[in-house]
């Protein structure tokens, strides 16, 4: 529970780094910029700040106290953004529920987080009704509706969000308390066992927000995010606070568009009609958007896009750049809040032709300010940054999660040796650029040599008739493991021999060894993905084994 700070009279004010401080600049500088929800609702930052106060009062009326956990089950919306602020600003903890988890995982995470109040969108009523009897700490529900009609439900709801919001006072004196108080929590699923609870304090989120703003204003000489930007997330708000960028967008007073449920045509239409200038997403979501019908009649030349979550294939990078999309990459993970590094294009790089820029844009960038990032060998010793030697990325920064909720033993494993271990294998080039080679668990060991599944995916994706690809290692009696590829073709004429012949070019130049060419290549209509749109290699391996 947060400890309130009551400074003695006539002593210097000890300014705590609290999320409420992020709201100061919105009304001060860009009060008439604002928030839009799809094409249905829009209001200014002045009204947004008033709505945050109303929500704080509404939560208090519903009995929420400092230290309580408030869960949200919603699409990306203005309501979610209001919860990003109001819930932690009253000293409660915001649990952003991953609505794509399985039934059992949802029950586990909501009980483990000790959710007390749940805000649930009407689209998830049936899901919530199925969970209700197994939730041990929830004692109140609040309904979120997009339409005017309130749907029937068996949940004992306290009311509808908008109706109660309008009844609440638009003024709230948000208290000071310990900046190390927990502000948010969410759950990241691992390869085995139950999802793990990641949590962040007010101090960590404020520092991450300041770092994010700095990073996004120094990527390529032109700020990606500022008060003249039109921002729309295409990363779920339940996933690491949509990479923390809504906090940054609010602090700088950017116009913000929240798309609701992710539907490729709607996303593209909003980008076009609202003049969206900056977004972020994982590569698989970008691919879906570029395949939509709306994409065929949309000019993307005003759109800046930061990609992360998984490697950006060369083929997709070329397609995006051909459409005029300025693509960059960022790197991080749930436990790092998430930003650790981002692509930076200096004057020399910007002067290069497009083809020469692609390898640089596809890398994970360089560490941002206040990030100490190294690569370590199996003996936990630092390795040189020579662009050749690979090691596991380990990191220190002031916004990294300190442990896993209620699982200190897993936290000790995460922080072995006083550095956060990412599980990612990379090289670091002399110029500081990070090049992710693979996840440790996804590296393929064949014939005594390590192969990068990400590198194979990128090379296969460069074939003009390949739409998407995933590569995994499968057990092999002779070689230990052999790469197996799933390919979504652009046309039915593409064959496995075509892909193998394509890869032989890279064998001949010494880029890869001949045993890197997959023995098995399956042509598929879809590739399994995780709840946040990444390629699900664990599931692929299970299906192919």
> pLDDT average, as an integer?
92
Rg over CA atoms? 24 Å
Overall CATH class of the domain at 13-202: Alpha Beta
Tell me the span between the first and last alpha carbons: 47 Å
Strand order, sheet with most strands: 7-6-5-3-4-8-9
Helix content: 25-40%
Shape: globular
- Total count of strands: 25
- What class do helices, strands and sheet pairing give? alpha/beta
What proportion strand?
15-25%
CATH superfamily of the domain at 13-202: ANL, N-terminal domain
CATH architecture of the domain at 13-202: 3-Layer(aba) Sandwich
CATH topology of the domain at 13-202: Rossmann fold
Number of helices: 18
Low-confidence stretches: none
Characterize the largest beta sheet: strand count, sense, and whether it forms a barrel. Answer: 7 strands, mixed
Keywords, separated by commas or semicolons:
545 residues; alpha/beta; Rossmann fold; GMP Synthetase, Chain A, domain 3; seven-stranded mixed sheet; five-stranded mixed sheet; 18 helices; 30% helix; 24% strand
């Amino acid at each position: 529970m947060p400890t309130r700070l009551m400074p003695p009279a006539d002593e210097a004010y000890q300014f705590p780094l609290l999320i409420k401080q992020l709201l100061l600049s919105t009304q001060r500088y860009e009060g008439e910029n604002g928030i839009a929800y799809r094409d249905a609702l829009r209001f200014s930052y002045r009204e947004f700040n008033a709505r945050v106060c109303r929500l704080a009062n509404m939560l208090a009326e519903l009995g929420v106290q400092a230290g309580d956990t408030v869960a949200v089950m919603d699409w990306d919306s203005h309501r979610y953004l209001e919860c990003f602020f109001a819930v932690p600003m009253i000293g409660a903890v915001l649990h952003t529920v991953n609505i794509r988890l399985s039934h059992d995982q949802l029950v586990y995470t909501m009980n483990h987080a000790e959710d007390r109040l749940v805000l649930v969108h009407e689209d998830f009523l049936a899901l919530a009704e199925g969970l209700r009897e197994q939730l041990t700490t929830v004692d109140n529900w609040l309904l979120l509706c997009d339409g005017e009609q309130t749907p029937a439900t068996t949940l004992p709801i306290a009311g509808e969000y908008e109706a109660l919001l309008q009844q609440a006072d638009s003024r709230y004196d948000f208290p000071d308390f310990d900046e190390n108080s927990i502000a948010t929590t969410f759950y990241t699923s691992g390869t085995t066992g139950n999802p793990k609870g990641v949590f962040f304090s007010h101090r960590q989120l404020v520092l991450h927000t300041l770092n994010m703003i700095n990073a996004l204003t120094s990527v390529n000489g032109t700020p990606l995010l500022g008060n003249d930007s039109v921002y729309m997330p295409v990363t779920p708000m339940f996933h690491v606070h949509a990479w923390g960028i809504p906090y940054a967008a609010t602090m700088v007073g950017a116009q913000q568009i929240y798309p609701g449920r992710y539907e490729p045509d709607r996303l593209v239409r909003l980008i076009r009609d609202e003049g969206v200038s900056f977004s972020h997403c994982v590569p698989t979501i970008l691919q879906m958007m570029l395949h939509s019908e709306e994409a065929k009649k949309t000019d993307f030349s005003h759109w800046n896009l930061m990609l992360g979550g998984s490697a950006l294939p060369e083929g997709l990078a070329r397609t995006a750049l051909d459409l005029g999309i300025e693509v960059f990459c960022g790197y991080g993970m749930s436990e790092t809040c998430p930003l650790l590094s981002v692509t930076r294009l200096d004057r020399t790089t910007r002067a290069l032709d497009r083809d020469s820029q692609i390898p640089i844009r596809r890398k994970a960038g360089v560490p941002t300010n206040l990030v100490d990032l190294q690569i370590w060998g199996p003996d936990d010793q630092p390795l040189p940054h020579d662009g050749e030697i690979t090691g596991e990325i380990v990191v220190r920064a002031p916004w990294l999660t300190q442990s896993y909720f209620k699982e200190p033993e897993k936290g000790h494993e995460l922080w072995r040796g006083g550095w956060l271990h990412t599980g990612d294998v990379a090289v670091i080039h002399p110029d500081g650029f990070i090049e992710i080679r693979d996840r440790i668990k996804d590296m393929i060991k064949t014939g005594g040599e390590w192969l990068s599944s990400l590198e194979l995916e990128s090379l296969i994706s460069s074939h003009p008739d390949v739409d998407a690809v995933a590569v995994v290692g499968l057990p092999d009696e002779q070689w230990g493991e052999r790469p197996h590829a799933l390919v979504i073709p652009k046309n039915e004429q593409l064959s496995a021999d075509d892909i193998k012949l394509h890869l032989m070019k890279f064998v001949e130049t010494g880029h890869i060894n001949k045993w890197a060419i997959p023995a098995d290549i399956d042509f598929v209509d879809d590739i399994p993905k995780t709840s946040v749109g990444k390629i699900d290699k664990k599931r692929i391996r299970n299906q192919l084994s």
